[in-house]
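Appendix C: a fully annotated inverse folding record. The material below is reproduced so that readers can follow the format used throughout the book. The structure is listed first as tokens, followed by the designed sequence.
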């Protein structure tokens, strides 16, 4: 565009080349190519939403290209706009001067008159010279049916005229320029392009494959130094495309060739499938790129229907003979390899997530489920959190972004960039129909999810495959081991309908003939797999599925020995079991009923308003080991008890002593701790073997307000993934009104005492570990503390309780307990038993409960709990 601007005292026309870049993460390669042709960038930020994940990614792309960056805050006319907050974010995250930000509204036009003058004043002109040897950078290309390949170029040095002969520095092939001009925005022929200008050329190229993006073009018979160019496009998602009718293969081939003429970043190779016939294996930059390509392909008039297989990512498999195999199609991976598999590697990405602080907990849970490793976690301001994770690409390749938007009510922003390959425990999951593998449905999954995915796949396929005249056996197998099976029964044809009478041998003969015919059809018959089955397969493979956990809860009435047994099933970790709203403080003990259940020992007290139990099957073994270790240590009264030298400051055991704590109604008190509270028996460190290091924490977790004491010479202390796992299993404290700070301290101290760190003072451990047990409002409170104000654990503990459990709260709870009435409890308990008895299905095989606990009398003076 042309803009008239007063420059050096006179009005001057300026030619500005503006490039609008896409914001989606899949097209970051397009952004990087556009930035290579520019000298500056306008960083546009929403005044209401603030800095998003895409803003962070695009800023660093411009920063790495050494471009002048002008921040523009748009949509200031909205009622929720907060330009000052956005300026503070730009300063804290990018170190941009808030006074340089332009306040605009594209809707009302306010402030737009400042943008173009700022571009001319702040962004330097192109550095090229028209007198230097001609060099031109190829930015992009597309195919025109009449003119052929049209290239978008940027003139770096020299000048280009119509009729010049140019040469490619990459291929050495020569071309003659038949047309040259600028885009305004349509193609306008100018006959010449000068240094610093961006325009188009038509040079007679026959296909876009000849126009290599990032190539340097120069005049023939001249020697130049090629420009740095771009990194080649790296395809990260692969999918198979097959025609629904085998006779449409040539039409599909022609349609793909036409589309790739305008999109050179798509890689295409031919492949053959025993189930789907001839097709193509296509590589894309991302999921959105793949979806756009599929939609454009389906719009081709010559095609009736196209089958797309499960999107996959490239894996690397290493074998014992030293060979490496890169697999883009799971069907190419041998199920029973000749050599032993040594290592598996999968691609990872660095994901950037910006969310409201209220959703930190669910997002951390989601990322942990997707095998994410937390790299960075901070708060942009009091309302928004910034997180960075390293995650396997496969875990985000289908529905991660949709699920992230769902759990954050649409307020999350997400962006990622490619990272390195990392070792992983991967297996190939085959789908068999009547013993024959369906290579189009083969997939590579993590070993921990193989059983769940296999079961779900065969169940879904059973619903979507049409019944035949013969029986269909659907199996999921890892190598030669079948892990799941479903049987689709045959359609029944009554061959005896025409026999109204006669000898029974005639009927038996007809039945035997039908039986033989079905066996023959099963051997030679084919099973058609509808496209809907492939779509459902996508949902199964990447959908979050919760395992069932069955519990048997024992509720004991306060004044007699009667008990109410409540059966609950289908617990998932995001579901709370609400027993009643009127139960006072009584205890609830859950224990495994069988040795093979591996369930943990949980001691839980019912709250007056709500009780919830959250158990994950994959965490049961870890929790069981922790519970057994704690129980053994608590019951070992014969062990020698040694005093703690620094217990005067810590007073952790006082926290567990009900006589020395503030009055509250939902504190879990260990009933079998026989050792004195002021001394602890010798403990062995409780070690847990985790499948992977999800958090990768190694160092300290203290914040600016905390000054942990220095470690003694030679002493080592690392915050390991085991500690983080246990903190998350016990639950992070978010500072919400319903959260119990005393229960959190009890759980935190219990976890701390489970580990042995010789030579390290306890203050050093607790002050470093406690911030990692907080989330949400609690983290904001910790960040607001006076810097360098906390040096011992007692100060931090007292400040924590003063903030989240003030004395007024204990007075209110004491009044509620004193006003307790036995009739209310009895009626509530009965209603609970009736409700749960009719609403919950019976348990299958995972039953928790205890029936031999002696009832304890209730002591009203001690908050309704009798302590041994």
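Designed amino acids, in order:
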């Amino acid at each position: 565009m042309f803009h008239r601007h007063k420059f050096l005292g006179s009005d001057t026309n300026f030619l500005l080349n503006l490039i609008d870049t896409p914001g989606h993460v899949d097209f970051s390669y397009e952004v990087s190519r556009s930035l290579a042709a520019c000298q500056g960038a306008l960083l546009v930020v929403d005044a209401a939403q603030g800095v998003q994940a895409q803003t962070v990614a695009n800023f660093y792309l411009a920063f790495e290209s050494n471009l002048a960056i002008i921040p523009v805050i748009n949509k200031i006319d909205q009622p929720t706009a907060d330009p000052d907050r956005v300026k503070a974010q730009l300063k804290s995250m990018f170190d941009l001067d808030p006074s340089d930000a332009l306040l605009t509204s594209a809707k009302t036009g306010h402030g737009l008159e400042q943008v173009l003058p700022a571009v001319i004043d702040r962004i330097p002109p192109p550095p090229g010279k028209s007198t230097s040897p001609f060099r031109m950078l190829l930015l992009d290309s597309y195919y025109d049916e009449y003119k052929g390949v049209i290239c978008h170029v940027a003139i770096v040095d020299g000048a280009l005229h119509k009729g010049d002969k140019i040469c490619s520095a990459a291929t050495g092939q020569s071309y003659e320029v038949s047309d040259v001009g600028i885009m305004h925005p349509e193609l306008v022929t100018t006959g010449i392009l000068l240094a610093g200008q961006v325009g188009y050329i038509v040079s007679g190229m026959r296909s876009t494959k000849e126009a290599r993006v990032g190539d340097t073009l120069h005049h023939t018979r001249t020697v130049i130094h090629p420009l740095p160019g771009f990194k080649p496009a790296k395809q990260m998602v692969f999918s198979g495309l097959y025609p629904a009718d085998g006779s449409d293969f040539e039409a599909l081939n022609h349609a793909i060739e036409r589309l790739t003429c305008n999109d050179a970043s798509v890689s295409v190779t031919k492949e053959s499938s025993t189930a789907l016939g001839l097709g193509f294996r296509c590589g894309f930059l991302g999921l959105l790129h793949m979806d756009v390509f599929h939609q454009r392909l389906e719009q081709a008039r010559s095609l009736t229907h196209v089958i797309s297989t499960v999107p996959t990512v490239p894996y690397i498999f290493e074998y014992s003979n030293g060979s490496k195999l890169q697999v883009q199609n799971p069907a190419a991976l041998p199920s029973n390899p000749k050599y032993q598999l040594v290592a598996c590697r999968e691609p990872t990405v660095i994901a950037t997530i910006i969310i409201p602080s209220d959703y930190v907990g669910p997002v951390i849970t989601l990322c942990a489920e997707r095998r994410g490793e937390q790299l960075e976690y901070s708060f942009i301001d009091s309302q928004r959190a910034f997180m960075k994770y390293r995650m396997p690409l496969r875990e985000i390749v289908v529905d991660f972004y949709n699920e992230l938007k769902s759990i954050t009510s649409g307020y999350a922003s997400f962006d990622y960039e490619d990272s390195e390959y990392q070792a992983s425990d991967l297996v190939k999951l085959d789908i068999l129909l009547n013993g024959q593998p369906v290579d189009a449905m083969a997939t590579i999954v993590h070993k921990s999810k193989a059983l769940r995915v296999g079961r779900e796949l065969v169940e879904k396929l059973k619903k979507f495959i049409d019944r035949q005249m013969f029986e269909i056996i659907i199996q999921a197998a890892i190598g030669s081991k079948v892990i799941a099976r479903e049987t689709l029964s045959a359609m029944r044809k009554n061959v005896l309908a025409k026999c109204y009478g006669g000898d029974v041998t005639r009927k038996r003969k007809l039945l035997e003939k039908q039986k033989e015919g079905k066996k023959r059809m099963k051997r030679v018959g084919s099973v058609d797999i509808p496209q809907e089955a492939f779509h459902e397969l996508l949902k199964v493979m990447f959908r979050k599925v919760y395992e069932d956990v069955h519990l048997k809860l024992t509720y004991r009435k306060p004044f007699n020995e009667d008990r109410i047994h409540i059966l609950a099933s289908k617990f998932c970790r995001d579901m709370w079991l609400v027993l009643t709203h009127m139960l006072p403080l009584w205890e609830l003990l859950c224990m495994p009923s069988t040795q093979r259940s591996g369930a943990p020992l949980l001691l839980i007290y019912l709250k007056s308003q709500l009780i919830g139990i959250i158990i994950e099957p994959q965490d049961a073994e870890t929790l069981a080991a922790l519970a057994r270790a704690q129980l053994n240590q608590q019951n070992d009264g014969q062990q020698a008890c040694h005093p703690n030298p620094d217990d005067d400051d810590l007073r952790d055991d006082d926290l567990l002593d009900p006589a020395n704590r503030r009055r509250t109604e939902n504190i879990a008190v260990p009933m079998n701790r026989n050792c004195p509270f002021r001394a602890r028996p010798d403990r062995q460190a409780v070690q847990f073997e985790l499948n992977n290091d999800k958090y990768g924490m190694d160092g300290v977790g203290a914040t600016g307000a905390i000054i942990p004491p220095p470690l003694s010479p030679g002493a080592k202390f690392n915050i390991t993934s085991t500690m983080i796992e246990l903190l998350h299993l016990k639950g992070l404290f978010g500072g919400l009104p319903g959260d119990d700070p005393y229960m959190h301290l009890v759980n935190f101290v219990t976890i701390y005492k489970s580990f042995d760190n010789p030579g390290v003072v306890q203050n050093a451990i607790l002050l470093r570990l406690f911030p990692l047990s907080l989330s949400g409002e609690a983290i904001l409170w910790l960040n607001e503390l006076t810097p360098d104000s906390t040096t011992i654990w007692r100060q931090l503990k007292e400040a924590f309780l003063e903030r989240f459990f003030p004395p007024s709260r204990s007075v209110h709870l004491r009044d509620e307990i004193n006003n307790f009435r036995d009739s209310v409890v009895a009626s509530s308990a009965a209603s609970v038993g009736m409700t749960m008895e009719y609403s919950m299905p019976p348990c299958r095989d995972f039953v928790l409960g205890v029936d031999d606990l002696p009832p304890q009398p209730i002591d009203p003076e001690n908050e309704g709990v009798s302590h041994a």
